[in-house]
Amino acid sequence: MIVAEIKRILRKNGSSEKALILQGFFKTGKGEYGEGDRFIGVKVPEIRKVAKQYKNLGLKENLKLLKSSIHEERLLAVLIFVLQYESGNQKTKKIIYETYLTNTEYINNWDIVDLSAPKIVGDFLKDKPKSPLYKLVKSDLLWQKRIAVVASFCFIKNNDFSHTLKIAEILITDKQDLIHKAVGWMLREVGKRNITAEEEFLKKHCHRMPRTMLRYAIEKFSDEKRQLYLKKRKEDSYGL
Questions:
Q1: Burial status of residue 187 (CB atoms within 10 A of its CB: 0-12, 13-18, 19 or more)
Q2: What's residue 1's pLDDT?
Q3: Looking at residues 61-75, what average pLDDT do you find?
Q4: Residue 70 gets which letter from DSSP?
Q5: Model pTM?
Q6: Cβ atoms within 10 A of the Cβ of 224, count?
Q7: For residue 207, what are the contacts with CB-CB under 8 A and spacing of at least 6?
């Protein structure tokens, strides 16, 4: 009954016009990364309000939302998990972390990953071995790899860059554009805190980085420095 009530609230806040826009924005067409994803047109601030209202939703009920074919319902589920994780004790945190990683097939678009992975996976692993991330990063599944990359944002915020850089090196030849963007974003975040660490990585790897990854990584550099890295990548690509 509670899940049905939540779904009604979401639909009340939805918009068919917004849903059409979101279906295009999140690439839901055939062969695209979000193929088949369905939207009801609810804005993220409204979803956050519902998450706060139902932050005490039981695990079984929240899993019903997470396993929904509706994008906004899955996003709501992970936002509820984040709230429960942040306010929970160690036992609760462990349950949510394990539930999250057991259900990654439903955490399957970039916004759902980005709004939850650092706060759940990253936070849980910040003082533990990082082997689960390296298992994820070697997956054939796009979203598991993105979870691994973005989860490391938690470590970056604590001035631990080593795992972000190792993961970036593993994914440097990945073919997925959304991985290029995620890795470049995390490298940029490293640079905000330690420009030397980022530039050491770039000097070693920029020649083989996908262009999108490099552009994201150097976005905050001066125009002159950006052009230098782009030129080096182009020259090295042609063996000059």
A1: buried
A2: 83
A3: 98
A4: B
A5: 0.94
A6: 7
A7: 232, 233, 236, 237
